[in-house]
Amino acid sequence: MSAPRIALIHAMQLAIEPVVDAFRQLWPQARVTNLLEDSLAPDLAAAGSITPAITQRFIDLASYSERCGANAVLFTCSAFGTAIEEAKRSVAIPVLKPNEAMLEEALHAGSRVALLATFEPSIPSLKTELEQLALDRGMHVQIRTRAIPAAVAALQQGRGAEHDSLIAAAAADFHKCDALVLGQFSMARAAMGIPAAPGRKVLTSPHSAVTRLKQMFDAR
User: Fold this and answer.
1) Closest Cα partner for 84 from 112, 109, 106, 56?
2) Is the pTM here over 0.85, yes or no?
């Protein structure tokens, strides 16, 4: 079988580099394409919740990627979990939500999970997804969350070091947990600057998602 073609669908420009870099490091054989639809995040913020129209746009994006020859789709926008579930049901190829692999890793680490996000509307989607995964496994999970909107604003303005330090400062408040989840793809760059804490695993979406996709195709 030739190298699989993986369609990456983004709602924010900032998500592209971290996941492309993860593919370069972990699965360079994959053929990666990028599709950016940067009106999704502001439209979600304006609507206040995922609407049927937003869901249909995700179905359309997944269908388009399938028609273009993708062997799998990875969405990198973590605020749209229910829309991505509908998109997954609409196509015949695998569709991976941005954080599902990472959240499963978090539950494997333990029941105390801290969720950090720089795009605040991602928090409800992440929390719901994690709670459902825990329920499916018969686990009771303790979830604490923190939004750090100033970090993404700094990154958008080219102040990467400030972005990383704001995330590291927030992480310091969650040293007593089993897993510290960085909920945006764009946050992965900050992971190296988070000091180690005994018993705490720091997880990033790009690394977990690319590892999961590679495992899926290696098993075929």
Assistant:
1) 56
2) yes
